[in-house]
Records
---
Amino acid sequence: EVQLVESGGGLVQPGGSLRLSCAASGFTFSNYWMNWVRQAPGKGLEWVANIKDDGSDKYYVDSVRGRFTISRDNAKNSLYLQLNSLRAEDTAVYYCARPGRLPWDAFEIWGQGTMVTVSS
Amino acid sequence: DIQMTQSPSTLSASVGDRVTITCRASQSISNWLAWYQQKPGKAPKLLIYKASSLQSGVPSRFSGSGSGTEFALTISSLQPDDFATYYCQQYNNYYTFGQGTKLEIK
């Protein structure tokens, strides 16, 4: 079964850091670009970042560039998102998502999400 | 940046109705458009990709149309399971989602 499972969310103070993980199974992880998407409580979806299949290229939405870092470990079939200098507006459910075979493609597979709450 | 605008924001309909949700891009995105369904507390589910291609396993009552800047998602005969929030997404230049359309039971 193709599956993505996120972990690492929690409550963090403004200015703090957190590292999210996404464990992939059921497909050849190293063949796919991977993404993070977030959803603030009661709000819509926002693409956050993606990373090339071999990890050599990374792209970010403007609001997180310089604060968040996407990475991957193909040997461990895992995707990561390092969140630094967190702000209240970063509070959201964070999903990892796998596109189709194209680098920039619709998201065929989603994890269940992990909640990040930034609050003092 | 490409902006995506969905309408309406909320749609009230009954089981059996035919409904259409529209999505407008701020510039041409060819046919690089997807539609997702999301239910409360769940991850989004891909319904349509490349504007009009039905994702495997999705019922044929869902269809997509359009190209360039104007797109539509149509549900031909609403079923109880279809009441949810729907998002369009462009993937022509990075990724941008529409603000969502909540489909409610009338």
---
Amino acid sequence: KQEVTQIPAALSVPEGENLVLNCSFTDSAIYNLQWFRQDPGKGLTSLLLIQSSQREQTSGRLNASLDKSSGRSTLYIAASQPGDSATYLCAVTPRNQFYFGTGTSLTVIP
Amino acid sequence: DGGITQSPKYLFRKEGQNVTLSCEQNLNHDAMYWYRQDPGQGLRLIYYSQIVNDFQKGDIAEGYSVSREKKESFPLTVTSAQKNPTAFYLCASSSTDNTEAFFGQGTRLTVV
């Protein structure tokens, strides 16, 4: 069964700092990897989708990379802002469903 | 405005009662999913459906039931057999080839 791990579980950084969130998965036979953001008590908002044939995707200050062979993905956030404070989850799609990590709780301190 | 709508946002249930959570999407997606989220445990799959009138159990289906009579709708019933139903429930949809998933805003169910 696919296992998805996110490290660290929590992260606190000062405003303006660049940061990296990590996601690892055990089965490299995936179709896609998706990064989400979740605010307290809310649903998940899709940030970036990386298809299995791609190595990275960028959206604004966010950049996500995918290395299927090593079972890893990173989410890079540039010039962090207090509004980036949220929980970030990654999900992989082997077939017919999505497997989620437990998330990284990010706090950006003004 | 396309998206997924879950209702209600908050739901209270007495022990022994069945309750139904609504999930509607207008994204024309074939696949729909129900997840349960508990603190520190991440999202766990309850049921999923790839097509109308067909659905499969996920990892924690016991005590839950679903139907998929329409493409747009995938309601989840939490039955009295579910021993610990208090949780945050999330509905999602995606295209058949399981590309990008979209989520609703969730329903928080509390047993009183």
